[in-house]
């Protein structure tokens, strides 16, 4: 009899918390979350001769320019670009005034092969020691073929700082991809959290794989050269193609898209953490080992202990495979990671988990056994504004019910 009463009590608490959550949604209907309506563009890859893939003019002109955060706290960027004909200079000139570059940083250059394709010369340069909330102008290349861009550093880490992230994943290079990218660029967001599946170059064979990585790099440059895109890997980056003699997973991705993993004491570029504005962001790898005692498991256990909610009240996790998914596509693929990590997400009060993989927008609230916690799993292509006051109201309401259980 006591067991029945306990079960009924828990059920009633669950219903009560659900009613409270409903109060945060107008009319209890979350069917429309944005005024944006996507145009019905064809979901086929854009031809290579389209202007969105245009090669910059000039001999050996830098192309495929993109930046990502280069340290733990947002005072550095990694600038990457490709020169197609020869290595050229691997220096970045930068400063706080347009056309006046007072500082210089020197990077590295490399290339790789994939089947018979040989990449251009891939440059990666760490620019550190930057000031918060400052606009920097940077120049890469040399002579008449040099190109200039800019980026804005984030505000200093502060619990009351508002910051706007774009969430993108499974982008590809179709006409719909262009619609998504243009929509993001009109959103006013300040940085991208990318949840895997970049170029979809693995849909091609032989030399066309590398060619489609190049076209994607030129495609996203219009945003990624000016704002940091924080990367995570998806299944379309694996590119295990033994029929072509290519058996090293993630070869193209790892050569082209660096991450600041060493800054967060990670042993792998596939999982890492950064802090930006009021957010502590953890990137996990769905396609690396994560069970007990593996490097990713050990690293996450320690990284969660480093979270300081007094400085970064938002704790965000990125992964490619959603650990909850009601769609038939990829159903239950994230179950093993859920079994390993969900209890940690709850224990450390993770606010949001963003994932991709399933090409449909879905969000949910996780009611962990015996606990009611507002853990949202959002799927790709959305914009997230961090507002500390809204979060404070929601979390205080829910946690009051956790700490003060009601017996009916």
TrEMBL record:
InterPro entries for this protein: Calcineurin-like_PHP, FN3_dom, Metallo-depent_PP-like, MPP_PAP, PAPs-like, PAPs_N, Purple_acid_Pase-like_N
PROSITE patterns: FN3 (PS50853)
Gene3D superfamilies cross-referenced by the UniProt entry: 3.60.21.10, Purple acid phosphatase-like, N-terminal (2.60.40.380)
Top-level taxonomic group: Eukaryota
Pfam families cross-referenced by the UniProt entry: Metallophos (PF00149), Pur_ac_phosph_N (PF16656)
Cofactor(s) needed for function: Zn(2+); Fe cation
UniProt GO molecular function: acid phosphatase activity; metal ion binding
Annotated EC: 3.1.3.2
Major enzyme class: hydrolase
Alphabetized UniProt keyword annotations: Glycoprotein, Hydrolase, Iron, Metal-binding, Signal, Zinc
Catalytic activity line of the entry: a phosphate monoester + H2O = an alcohol + phosphate
Domain Fibronectin type-III: 61-156
Similarity remark: Belongs to the metallophosphoesterase superfamily. Purple acid phosphatase family.
Protein name per the record: Purple acid phosphatase
Lineage: Eukaryota, Viridiplantae, Streptophyta, Embryophyta, Tracheophyta
